[in-house]
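S.,

Sequence below, as promised.
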Amino acid sequence: LWKVILLELKTVTYGSALVAAKDLEPGTIVERFVGPDVIYDELSDYDKTYVLNYKPKGSTEWKWMLATSKARFANHSCNPNSVITDDQYLKTVKPIKEGEQITFIYNVGEESEWWDPVWTFKCECRNSNCQGMIDKYRPKTFQNNTHF
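The prediction came back faster than expected:
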């Protein structure tokens, strides 16, 4: 029920976006990444742009999930308003106004970790701390981003 009330999809110039259907406070769970675990090398390049690399709670093994829930439409921002929790929920960390996109940072990690070139794109977030090209993992840059 909370998903229907809190979120809607909106068409933007580069595809679809997950937006708040009403004002949201920090700490609000807005959606969960849900979908089948997949074998990365068997995915199309298109599906690789939506895949989530995650470690199930209590596990030491990383997995790939092809999200089928609305969470897959949360876009990247270098100054995100949400994070992914350890149990794959999308949780706000800042106030979000009605109509504003739900965003998280796509590329937090160690620069030495493998990066698939199909994930590379020019960031359009327009924040003062914008990375420009999203073309590799970078160390944690957002104070409250605790998922990665």
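Residues 46 and 60 are 28 Å apart (CA to CA).

Coffee later?
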